[in-house]
Sequence to fold (142 residues):
Amino acid sequence: MGRSRGGLTTKIHVVTDARGLPIRLCLTSGQDHDISVAEDLLSHMKKGEMLLADKAYGAKWLRDMLFEKGAWANIPPKSNSRSSFVFSPYLYKQRNLVERFFNKIKFFRRIATRYDKLGQMYLAMVKLASIRIILRFYESTA
Fold:
């Protein structure tokens, strides 16, 4: 866990599919930059897939890595960016699926209030909540 003014913090990084269901999860300490785990999280991307991410993932090396794999990156440009690239605001609207996933896991009180002291236990609870979200999505209504 990382330190901040309020105490110890943790960031949850998630890759979701087009339905908002989690594919990969990762934890980092609060002071770590988001892109520090991007290579591990996005190593599974294949040709023709698209990454919708926020400005924190807008590094040139990440775009080049995705380009080599044949994947697309739709990431808004940073205000201090010197290079220009294609960005579609229309496609970027679908990134709200990730935010919806975070909203769903906040319904689990143990995750929202971070009762666990160890990062491994917290990640395990996030994964259990993710499994429950996936099962709820596929559950039959009949």
